[in-house]
Every structure is written in structure tokens, then in C-alpha cells.
């Protein structure tokens, strides 16, 4: 019943045409998570539940007031848009509302983390995609996504607990999703992230460290895993939009985060607890087929796009060269 509530919450929020119903659907998911928080075996479970309740209540109050004005067009104010975006940053755990994620995730069980970092992010991300109608909000969301990707990768290198590392990784991947909101492919990236996260936490719950190591490498975005395809698509879409700074900053965040992914991969891969399960082993095999999907299904599309991009780039270089030569001739 608890899992049904957490999974039905984003369906209610995104399928409703009324803001009040959408907000209630999102709060149903938050309330449905409380029994899972109470069933933790950690001594700090009540403290984490109160922390989660206070932060999410503040974000819900801000979102409710700003959403009424924003969706009913009562008054076109940039302050309302900023308030709505701030509430979504607290809900999603992105910069500047990312401060609660590592400490809260560190005190929760694997099942609670799966619900917190997975289905409950779908509805706020859907509302975030409605803010990109204006150019100011588009660039602001892009900036928050870049900062989240960088900060999440830096925070992950300072963690020694696997739970805190997963929380920092969630901040970084949420930043990638924000960039995906701006350029496209947000739902494909989120679907891949949710699948990998679910199986990774399931392998930890079943003490299958071999499968967990494979999932961890996939989450880092290394080829030939599935998340490599998701990250590559967002990078190419940002490149096609001529956003070179976003392109290089996202690559830099992936390189920084690769350090702690490999650190935890080595520590868990070299253990003797390889209780490999059949289902997880099959998914690990399918996870390795991400590069095959790129080669056989996506190669034509991306090759055509890359050819168009390089033709445009070469034409712009030729035009700039011709203009430079004309200026030199005029000067002489």
C-alpha cells in the first residue's frame, strides 16, 4: 500500500489539469513516505523524519502559494517565478536547496532511499519543465543544473559512507536532469536513472556486491553502460544548441564524480560477498548492452546531427575567414 501511494502520487500530479489537485497528489507521496521513514532500524530515524517533514512542508507552502499565482496568471511577476523555482529546488534537492539530501539519505534504509530519490522526484521535475517558457527562467534553470552537477560531484568526493555518496550522486544527476529540461531528453534520462538506482539499491538490500559494482559503474556514465547513453544524449543536445560552456562543465562534473564512483567500486568489488542473484545478473548483462543500443539504433540519428553541426561549424569558420581577409585587404 505504501509503495502504491508513492508511485500513484506523480501520476495524480502530472495528469491533473487543476493546480490544487496536482499539489495534493504530490503531498500524498510525501505523506506516504513517512511510514517507511519510521520503519528504519537507525536510531536517528525519527530525527530524519522530522527534518524531512520540516523541509518538505516549507517547500510545499512556498509551492502552493506561488503555484496558485503562477498557474492562474493572476499576476505576472518574476518574484513569483523565483519563489516557485526555489520551492522546486527544495523538493528536488538541487542547488541551492541541496543541503538536506546527503545527511537525510545517510540515516535511511535502502527501500526508503529508493522511494525518496526515485518516484517522488517525477512530479517536481514535471513542474520544473513548465518554467522554461521564458528565457530568463530557462537560463536560470540551466545555471542551477550546472551548479548542482558540480556541487554533487564535489560533495561525493568528501563522503565515506555509501548512503551519503548515493545522496551526493543524486544531487549531481538532478543537475543533469535540469539541463535535460532545458535542452530535451529529461524523461529518458530520468527513466534510465530510476531503473539503475532501483536495481543498485536492490542489490545492496540483497547483499549482492558484484551486481552493485556493475550498477555503480553504470551510474557513473562510463561506456558501455546505459547511463553513458543518457549522458551522451544530453551532452549532444547541449552541443547542438551551441551551449559550449554547459557542455564542458557537464563533462568536468562527470570526470570529478568518476573519482568517488571508482573508489566505492573498488571497495565493494574486492569483497567476498558475491551472492549473485539470477535477476540481477541478467540485468547487469542487459546494462552492458547500452553501447550496442547506441551503435545499432542511435548511430544514424547522431551521425546525421553531427554532420549537420560540423557543416555549420565549417561554414561559419569559412565566413569568418573571408571577413577577416576582407578586413585585411581594406586595411592595406
Q: How does this structure look, described?
A:
It is a multi-pass membrane protein. This is NADH-ubiquinone oxidoreductase chain 2. Its EC number is 7.1.1.2. InterPro entries: Complex_I_Subunit_2, ND/Mrp_TM. GO terms for molecular function: NADH dehydrogenase (ubiquinone) activity. The chain has helices spanning 2-15, 19-38, 45-72, 78-92, 101-105, 110-117, 122-128, 135-157, 162-183, 186-205, 209-220, 226-240, 244-269, 278-287, 290-331. It starts with a helix and ends with a helix. It is globular and about 80 Å long. The model has no long low-confidence stretch (mean pLDDT 80). With 332 residues, the protein is mainly α. The protein has 15 helices and no strands. It has one domain.
Q: How helical, in percent, are the residues?
A: over 70%
Q: What value does the Rg take, in angstroms?
A: 22 Å
* First-to-last CA distance: 81 Å
Question: How many beta-strand runs?
Answer: 0
Pfam families: Proton_antipo_M
EC number: 7.1.1.2
Family: Belongs to the complex I subunit 2 family.
Keywords: Electron transport, Membrane, Mitochondrion, Mitochondrion inner membrane, NAD, Respiratory chain, Translocase, Transmembrane, Transmembrane helix, Transport, Ubiquinone
Amino acid at each position: 500500500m505504501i509503495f502504491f501511494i508513492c508511485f500513484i502520487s506523480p501520476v495524480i500530479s502530472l495528469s491533473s489539469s487543476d493546480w490544487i489537485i496536482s499539489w495534493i497528489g504530490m503531498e500524498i507521496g510525501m505523506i506516504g513516505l513517512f511510514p517507511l521513514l519510521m520503519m528504519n532500524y537507525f536510531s536517528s530515524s525519527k530525527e530524519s523524519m522530522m527534518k524531512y517533514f520540516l523541509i518538505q512542508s516549507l517547500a510545499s507552502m512556498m509551492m502552493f502559494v506561488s503555484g496558485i499565482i503562477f498557474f492562474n496568471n493572476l499576476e505576472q511577476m518574476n518574484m513569483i517565478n523565483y519563489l516557485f523555482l526555489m520551492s522546486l529546488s527544495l523538493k528536488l534537492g538541487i542547488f541551492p536547496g541541496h543541503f538536506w539530501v546527503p545527511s537525510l539519505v545517510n540515516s535511511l534504509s535502502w527501500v526508503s532511499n529508493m522511494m525518496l530519490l526515485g518516484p517522488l522526484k517525477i512530479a517536481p521535475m514535471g513542474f520544473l519543465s513548465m518554467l522554461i517558457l521564458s528565457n530568463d527562467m530557462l537560463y536560470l534553470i540551466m545555471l542551477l543544473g550546472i551548479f548542482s552537477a558540480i556541487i554533487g560531484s564535489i560533495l561525493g568526493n568528501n563522503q565515506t559512507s555509501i548512503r551519503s555518496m548515493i545522496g551526493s550522486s543524486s544531487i549531481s544527476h538532478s543537475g543533469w536532469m535540469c539541463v535535460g529540461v532545458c535542452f530535451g531528453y529529461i524523461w529518458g534520462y530520468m527513466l534510465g536513472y530510476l531503473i539503475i538506482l532501483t536495481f543498485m539499491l536492490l542489490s545492496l538490500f540483497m547483499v549482492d556486491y558484484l551486481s552493485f559494482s556493475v550498477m555503480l559503474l553504470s551510474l557513473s556514465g562510463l561506456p558501455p553502460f546505459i547511463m553513458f547513453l543518457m549522458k551522451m544524449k544530453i551532452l549532444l543536445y547541449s552541443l547542438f544548441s551551441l551551449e559550449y560552456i554547459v557542455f564542458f562543465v557537464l563533462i568536468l562534473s562527470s570526470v570529478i564524480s568518476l573519482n568517488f564512483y571508482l573508489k566505492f567500486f573498488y571497495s565493494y568489488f574486492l569483497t567476498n560477498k558475491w551472492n549473485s542473484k539470477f535477476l540481477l545478473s541478467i540485468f547487469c548483462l542487459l546494462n552492458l548492452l547500452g553501447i550496442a543500443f547506441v551503435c545499432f539504433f542511435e548511430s544514424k540519428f547522431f551521425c546525421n546531427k553531427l554532420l549537420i553541426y560540423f557543416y555549420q561549424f565549417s561554414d561559419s569558420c569559412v565566413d569568418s575567414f573571408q571577413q577577416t581577409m576582407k578586413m585585411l585587404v581594406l586595411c592595406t
